[in-house]
Amino acid sequence: QQQVKQSPQSLIVQKGGISIINCAYENTAFDYFPWYQQFPGKGPALLIAIRPDVSEKKEGRFTISFNKSAKQFSLHIMDSQPGDSATYFCAASMNSGYSTLTFGKGTMLLVSP
Amino acid sequence: SAVISQKPSRDICQRGTSLTIQCQVDSQVTMMFWYRQQPGQSLTLIATANQGSEATYESGFVIDKFPISRPNLTFSTLTVSNMSPEDSSIYLCSVQGETDTQYFGPGTRLTVL
User: What is the 3-state secondary structure (H, E, C) of chain B?
Assistant: First the structure.
């Protein structure tokens, strides 16, 4: 049973455009939702994270939107740049993040120049 | 943030042999995790390794195949035993310190022939 479903599997966006990646979860006990960015040959790096007590969190060009009732959250990358080309993973955990992470399957983003 | 190093960064091994992967952190952390990431796939948790206790394995992973040591708060090893080509993956360690963030190492890319 896949507890975190991520879409799309791959995404091509023009430079300057908005990249949107969506995730849905099933376990209502999840209370911490991070997004990780992974470049080829590197380990995943935390990009931004959100808790269910807020509906949106913004850090620079990256925004998480969270819909608790729908059990969905999404990552928006504004003004996408070629350097943003990477694989993005959403994840979820319990106990306010002090627990194991359950990852989505990942989205390979390509930002064309 | 925690700085994590892994050794080796990559290896090519013969079927039936074993490989021990080392994970070193630059600060003391309570929780360490080992993940497997098969080519082009998401991250799957193998086990949680807390200092002073036995590792806790996820469904589908057993201690005989993936023995783990956690001798202190900055170091852990994962051994992949009696390897087969299906074990070809990237193996990642991650740590969780005082905050809710998990930090990942650069990974060990294993190819089994």
Answer: CCCEEEECCEEEECCCCCEEEEEEECCCCCEEEEEEECCCCCEEEEEEEECCCCCEECCCCCCCCCCEEEEECCEEEEEECCCCHHHCEEEEEEEECCCCCEEECCCEEEEEC
Which one of A41, A45, A89 has the shortest CB-CB distance to B42? A89
* Chain A residues closer than 8 Å to B102 by CB: 34, 46, 97, 101
Mutate to test the interface with A, among B35, B41, B42 (most CBs of A within 10 A): B42
- Residues in B closer than 8 angstroms to A41, CB to CB, are 106-107, 109
pLDDT in tens, B21-59: 999 999 998 889 999 999 888 999 999 998 878 899 999
pLDDT, one tens digit per residue, over A9-56 is 999 999 999 999 999 999 999 999 999 999 998 999 999 999 989 999
